[in-house]
Amino acid sequence: MRQILGVCLIGLLMVGLTGAAGAEDKVYVGSQACKDCHEKEYEKFSKFSRKSHSFSNIKKMEKKLTPEEYKGCFQCHTTGYGQAGGFVSEEKTPELKNPGCEVCHGPGSRHAETGDPYDIITQMDTDNCTVCHNEARNSEFNFNPLLFGGAH
Amino acid sequence: MITLFKRRLWIKVLVPVSVCVLLVMGISLWVSLKDQNTLGRQQLTTQNKTLALAIEGGMFEALAIGDNDTVRTQFKTLHDTVKGLGVFVYDFNGLVSFSTDVDSVAKPMDRVISGPALGDINEMMASGKTSSDSFQVVYQGEDYLVKNDPIPNEPRCYHCHGSSRTVLGGISVLSSMTQMQAGIQKGKTKSILISTAGLALIVFTVWLFFFLIVNKKVRQVLNAASSLRQKDFTHEYEVKEGDEINHILNRMSMVSKELKATIQEIIQGSVALGESSTTLTGIAASLNDSSTETSKKASNVSAAAEEMSTNNAAIARAMDDATDTLNSVAAAVDEMTATVGEIAKNSAESKAVIDKVVASFEVILKAVEELGVRAEDVDEVTDEISSISEQVSLLALNAKIEAARAGEAGKGFAVVAQEITELASDTSKSTQEADEKLARIKVTAKELITQVSGLTGDVKASDQAISGIATAVEEQNATTQEISRSINDASEKISSVNESVNQGAEVASEIAKDVVDVEAMSGHVQEQSSAFSTDSERLSSMAEKFSQLMKQFKI
Q1: In sequence order, what are the beta bridge partners of B149?
Q2: Which residues of B307-325 are buried (b: 16+ CB within 10 A; e: fewer)?
Q3: What Rg do the C-alpha atoms of chain B give, in angstroms?
Q4: Which residues pair with B90 in a beta bridge?
Q5: A140 touches chain B (CB under 8 A)
Q6: Is residue A3 part of a domain?
Q7: Nearest 5 degrees, angle CA B121-CA B124-CA B126?
Q8: Cα Rg of chain A, angstroms
Q9: How far apart are CA B191 and CA B188, in angstroms?
């Protein structure tokens, strides 16, 4: 029994190490890439999750903000801003201008290629959300994060 | 109206009372209206501020999630359901973001309001502070009260608006003042009606008070005064202690009694006065007669003195005339003396001139005679020259002959002899001409001697005539000087007489002046006695009238 448990632990450790090494090659591809395989989830997310079309909110405020303030919005109102293959600008990376599937599930280029569930984050908790849905915003706007946003 | 005011005591009291009441009511009404206006503005201000807070809170949730459509819908609903309300939400640039007036969206606030309210918004945008006051503006043709409030950039706003700005914008709520103004107007009308009714009640109360309390007693006073006016002091007034009018009546009764006693004394005095005035009238008449007689006599003396003065004056004038005449004659004599002297002087000068002329004529005569003698001498010389020229001519002829004899050698000499012959001939001719001229000179000299001799005789005759004139003038001069002395004597005598007459006139004038003074004093005494007589008669008449007047009093 102890031997079986030891083998499993080593196996998991190897899988984890393999996954971690592969994550460095992943890039953001946008939610449209998920649509073909996850059509139902995509539609619900797009329809019911307000973050999926929240770039228009910061767009409305663009003229009333300083350029630095406006860029500060990109972290939570785009996908992968400041990361490899992430949002650069509305013109250069229009497919990433709204927070999409990859905000919570991580960059999905490899998953899109392989279809392997291990190539994407499937297990997550609220710690993933507090980057944007921090305590202050929650208390001020009642922006509590919803796991399975849009009931997908 | 003025007549009523003058004749009615209650109106006199009513007018100031009414003025005071009207003044108090007016002030009260003015203060009340002002308070209502202030209160209304305060209510609208509070309402606007509350509305601003409510609207700001209401739209926060929607704006937080970028739901602008919901906010627009809320503003449209507000516009459709609440009348007389305007809400404007604008950014820090003053551009309207949301409004009940859809047409104003995306336009600056200066299109909506102006004046101090707009200045308040600009100040608010700059400093983040706003005035606690509301501002009256005209919006859509009506009066509105606007309250401006800033939208500060609070931490809860940083998520969308960043943190660089202190003010995000503002919210202005406009409430129509029409309803408030209508309410104030209604209150004003009501207050005026109540004031008018109150004033009418006061007028009626005052009139009733006077009718029941004052007028009755005043009538008693009037009756008493009427009796006094008719000089009737026979009435007695019994008045009990009471108000001021009773007091007046009581005093009138006392005055009536005192007057009654006084009038009795006056009547007695007037009788005595009548008697005394009669006596005085007699004295005045006697004094008047005496002064009239004095005046008459003084007038006679004055007339005599005046006549004497007139006569003296006539004598003085005659003597003055005589003096003037003598003076004129003396002046004429003096002038004549001067003229005679001038004539004598001129005669002497003429005589001296004539003497000089006679002497000159004598010199001329001698010169002319000398000229005749000299002419004779020249005549002899010419004769001598003529004789010499004849001899020269003979000598020349001899010389020609001798020259002819000499032949060729005597030719030159013959020429000289010929020249000498011609010279002798010319000399002879000249000598003849000189003789002729001398003969004409001698004739002329004789004529001149004759003429000068005649003139000298005439001048000597004139000299004798002038000498006769000078003698006559000297005699005339002596005569006029004698006349002048006589006139001066006469003039001195007349001056002496004139002085005596003037002294007499001065004395007469002094007498006349004194008499005039006497007459004036007599006239003054007469006037005084006349005035005294008149006064005494007037006094007598007054005493009589006074006695008659006193008889009118009923005592």
Answers
A1: B171
A2: ebbeebeebbeebeeebee
A3: 76
A4: B96, B170
A5: yes
A6: no
A7: 115
A8: 18
A9: 5
pLDDT of residue B158: 85
Helix (H) or strand (E) segment spanning residue B101: none
**What are B99's strand-pairing partners?**
B88
* Two tokens, residue B315: 């004598």
Tell me the average pLDDT across B91-111.
93
Predicted local confidence at residue A7, as pLDDT: 40
Rounded Cα distance, A135 and B111, in Å: 42
When divided into structural domains, chain A yields a total of 1
Give the span between the Cα atoms of B92 and A26, in whole angstroms: 44
Inter-chain CB proximity B68 and A72 less than 8 Å: no
Bridge partners of B296, per DSSP, are none
C-alpha torsion angle, residues A105, A109, A115, A116 (rounded to 10) = -70
Identify the residue among A141, A142, A144, A146 best suited for mutation to test binding to B, counting B beta carbons within 10 A and taking the highest.
A141
**Per-residue model confidence (pLDDT) at position A147:** 58
Q: A64 and B68 in contact by Cβ < 8 A? A: no
The amino acid present at A120, given as its one-letter code, is I
Candidate from A56, A69, A140 with C-beta closest to B164: A69
Which of A56, A69, A140 is opposite residue B162, by nearest beta carbon? Answer: A69
Tens-digit pLDDT profile for residues A8-24? 344 344 444 444 444 45
Measure the CA–CA gap between B473 and B402, rounded to whole angstroms: 89
Higher pLDDT, B79 or B501: B79
How many whole angstroms separate alpha carbon B466 and alpha carbon B348? 8
Residue B98 is inside which H or E element, if any?
A: strand B96-99
Q: Which long-range contacts (CB under 8 A, 24 or more apart) does B43-50 make?
A: B43/B180, B44/B134, B44/B145, B44/B147, B44/B175, B44/B177, B44/B180, B45/B133, B45/B134, B45/B145, B45/B147, B47/B175, B48/B134, B48/B145, B48/B146, B48/B147, B48/B173, B48/B174, B48/B175, B49/B147, B49/B149, B49/B173
- pLDDT at site A25: 78
Answer yes or no: do B162 and A65 touch at CB < 8 A. Answer: yes
Task: Please indicate whether, in this complex, the C-beta atoms of A66 and B156 are within 8 angstroms of each other.
Answer: no
Residue A31: give its domain's CATH number. Answer: 1.10.1130.10
Q: Is A45 among the domain residues?
A: yes
Q: What is the DSSP letter of B210?
A: I
Cβ of A72 and B91 within 8 Å?
Answer: no
Q: How far apart are CA B267 and CA B261, in angstroms?
A: 10
Tell me the CA distances in angstroms from B249 to B220, B236, B356, one per residue in order: 8, 11, 138
- Kindly report, residue by residue over A20-73, the tens digit of the pLDDT: 444 457 899 999 999 999 999 999 999 888 889 999 989 989 988 999 999 999
Taking a C-beta distance cutoff of 8 angstroms, is the pair B18, B199 a contact?
yes
Contacts of B444 (CB under 8 A, 6+ apart): none
Instruction: Give the model's pLDDT for residue B420.
Output: 85
For tokens 């309207």, the residue is B96
Smallest Cα–Cα separation from A90: which of A52, A59, A49, A53? A59
Distance from CA of B103 to the nearest CA of A (A): 20
Range of the domain at A44: 24-129
Is A143 part of any domain?
Answer: no
Q: Does B407 contact A at CB distance below 8 Å? A: no
Q: Is A46 inside any structural domain?
A: yes
Evaluate whether B501 touches B323 at the Cβ level (below 8 Å).
no
Task: State the Cα–Cα distance between residues B138 and B112, nearest whole angstrom.
Answer: 9
pTM, whole model, 2 decimals?
0.46
More confident residue, A149 or A92: A92
Closest Cα of chain A to B98: distance in Å? 14
Q: What's the start-to-end Cα distance of chain B, in Å?
A: 41
Centroid of chain to Cα B370: 98
